[in-house]
Structure formats: C-alpha cells, structure tokens
Amino acid sequence: MTEDSAQPGSGAQPPERDLADIPAVEVITRAAVMLMSAAAEKLGLSSDDPEDSPHRDLDEARRLITALAGLVTASAEYLGPHAGPVRDGLKTLQLAFRESSAAPEEPGKGPGEKFTGPVW
C-alpha cells in the first residue's frame, strides 16, 4: 500500500492535496481560521481563567487580529456564505481584546478597526 492509498481505519493520513487544486475560498478561509485560533490562544481564551493563561500575550493577539481584519476586509466578496461567520469571529475577538485590555482603547482604535470600523 502506498501513502496515497490510505484505507479507512488504517490510521494512515489521507493523501495530501496539491495547493494548486485547492479553491481560493478554502485557502482564505483556512488562513482566517488559523489567525482566529492563534488570536484566541494569545488572548488566553482556551484557559479557564484567561488572565492566568501561560499563552496570553496581548501584543501578539493585536497583530493577529489586525492581520485577520485585513484578510477578511480584503476578501469578504470572495467568501460567499463563509463571510458572515468569519466576520462574527473577528468581531468576537476584537471585543474580547477590548475586555482583556487593562486600558481599553476607544471604539475605532482597537486591533483591526482601521479595516473594519469601530466595534461595539
């Protein structure tokens, strides 16, 4: 059996897809999900107490959220039915960042808000 002929239940990985064969919307959505997941980790959201998370790093979270906002804003027209959930996830992270900050910025000045506009 070759690597490309993985059988169900055999524990083998499914065959890798050539990047050229993956539709743009899937690449963009995967990138957005990765940025969201990383930002959530940096906000400490995977911990019971985010403030005590060993992964909490608001400077890193700001960068990730801003990158996500730029990606979402630039690609919203291509995301089709994925646009709404991705925007909702972004907004949730922006609000979580504001809540996590010792000195929250005013709406319109938070991470990614130069791309999305103020988040309330």
UniProtKB/TrEMBL annotation:
Residues 1-10 have a biased composition (Polar residues). Residues 1-22, 97-120 are annotated as: Disordered. InterPro entries: DUF1844. It comes from the Bacteria. This is Recombinase RecA. It comes from Mycolicibacterium chubuense (strain NBB4).
